[in-house]
Structures are given as C-alpha cells and as structure tokens.
C-alpha cells in the first residue's frame, strides 16, 4: 500500500527509463469542514498541489516530460510560461543535467517563480508581450531548432498531470467525488485530470467519473464563454487581465480538449472576479491553513459562486484543486492584506498595538 506519488502509477505512464524525479506528487487531500460550512456544501476536500517540490502541479507534467526528453535524446528543453511551468522546467532540467530556455511575459510574472527559474539556471527571456505571444514564439523556436518543447501542447505533460486523478481516487479510498473544481488557464490540467479519471474507469478500478468544473477569472475566460455559448471552439481574448497572473491567458492551447472534457463529464465552467478569488484565498488560508497563490483560489471562489447560483447541489462531494503555493506571489499577498503594525521597541507600544 505504497504512499501516493507520481511514479507509483509508472505502469500507466509512457516513460521507459528511470525517471527524472524529485519526489513529486503525493500531495495532501485535506478535508475542509470549516470552509465547506462557509460555502454551504456537505463534503469538501482540497487537493493542495502547492505542496509539490517546486510549489505547483507542474511538477507532475515535468517529471514525465523531462524524462521523455532524456529518453528521446533531446539536448535542450524550452517553454513559454506564466511562471510555474518555467520554474518546474528549470528545476527538472537541472536535475536531468540539461539546459532549459524559458520565455516569460515581461512584467507579469510572480516574483517567486522568476526566482526559481533564475536560481535553477534556466535561460530566462522576458518577452515584451503576453503569455500567448510568448507561446507562439517558443513554438516557432522549437520548429526551427533541435529544442524540445515542453508546454502542455506536449502530451507527455498531460500524462504526468493525470496522476492527480489517480491520487484523489486513492486518497478517497477508491471512491470518486461527484465533482472536481479547478482553475483553467492553458487548459492542460482539466484535460489531464479528466483523462486520469477516464483511464481508471477503463481499467475497471472505478465505475464513474466526476463532473469536471473549470474556473477562470472575469478578465480572462475564453473557456467559460465557449461553454456558456455552446461554441465548438473558443474566441481568443486579445488582452486577458487578472491579478491571477498564472492564468492570465487569452488563447489556451488545449481549449478544444478542455471543452470536450467539461462537456463529456457533464461538468461546467464559471468565471469569478479578482475580488472573489482574493476572498477565497483568505478563506483557504485563515479557515483551513492552506496557503495558495491567487489563481489556485479561483477553484474555491468558483465553487462558492456555483453553489450560490444553485448550479452545484449542497449534497455533492467536491474536490477543489489548489494548484500553486502562496509563496509564489508574495507581492499580491502584501497588496491584499492589511499593513503590519510597526511599533517602538517597548512593551507599552506593543501592548497598545495588540490590545487597543
Ligand atoms: C498556479 C496555476 N494554476 C492554474 C494554472 C492553469 O493550469 P492550465 O489550465 O493547465 O494551464 C496554472 C498554469 C500556469 C501556466 O500555464 C504556466 O506556468 O505557464 C498555474 O500556474
């Protein structure tokens, strides 16, 4: 009865060599009764992917993707990123001993993520544009050069991320939740998790799949608009804008796969405002001790909104996936929390600050 981790499921992963691994996966599935009570549902779990070695769920895709790069004899790996993918690629590249190149949207990446990419030795290039511009460029670069592209258009990334579903089933005692709610940016993760639940049904391990529910921010929600309008494909947004810079994406590369995942699982999609996601970030931290970066909190904010709208029943068992650690974006935290008090170094000043 091995503890959950990505490579516990190696028989379901397409890698034939000893993987490049830094003990990714096996993240906690917290039962959140206080938060469930505030939201008004019976049973809520939070799968905290911020507890991965690099602080986000990207580790799962990168351990498989970088292992595959080595297996294929690739010499260099690259990605465009809103930050977490670049942090994970730098770290797994360092572990694998191969150089990495990362393209980031200038001025729109959380400090923690830039720090990781830099310190772990990636070649960090800031693009004067947004993530979508950077993704187009890195795809052109990898078409022209013998460089292995590791954005989530690379299916090996999704293979690793599908293990989130396997672990949820494992951790719930081989039962399946009614619904999984998660943030959606480039739309790889919702696609991957849906695939994992489908594979367990195909293998006869489980007999049903959860409703996949994707949450975006009001300023960057092409998937939500397509789901609500019944459109076959998304209409790319030119100027996505949100405090949740991880999902500030206007033209998600996995859009069609994500629309299929939501529709075939009888799921849905909803958007939340930045204020709503900041409130959820505070609720997670202060009611449950779970520290997440802004994009991650959209899952809980979206759950609350869908319950309030009567779209999600109070009797559902729900898993919210929180995708990145609070420490990734300290600037946002300082900007949305009250100022710390600064006092003279005397007991009188201290008592006044605490008890007045
Ligand atoms: C914290 C956090 N939460 C949610 C998402 C959305 O996942 P996808 O819908 O699979 O894209 C991201 C995505 C980040 C990048 O796309 C990148 O790092 O380049 C994230 O960092």
Summarize the topology.
Layout: E1 29-31, H1 33-39, E2 43-48, H2 58-71, E3 77-80, H3 84-96, E4 100-105, H4 111-119, E5 123-127, H5 131-144, E6 148-149, H6 155-161, H7 163-171, E7 179-183, H8 188-202, E8 211-217, H9 222-229, H10 255-264, E9 268-272, H11 274-288, H12 294-308, E10 317-322, H13 330-336, H14 347-355
Parallel strand pairs: 2-10, 3-4, 3-6, 4-5, 7-8, 7-10, 8-9
Antiparallel strand pairs: 1-2
Helix pairs in contact: 2-3, 2-6, 3-4, 6-8, 7-8, 8-10, 11-12
Residues 56, 81-85, 152, 183-189, 246-247, 293, 295-296, 323-324 line the site of ligand AN7.
Question: Quick summary of this structure?
Answer:
Helices cover 43% and strands 14% of the residues. By secondary structure, it is an alpha/beta fold. Strands 1-2-10-7-8-9 form a 6-stranded mixed β-sheet, sandwiched between helices. A 4-stranded parallel β-sheet has the order 5-4-3-6.
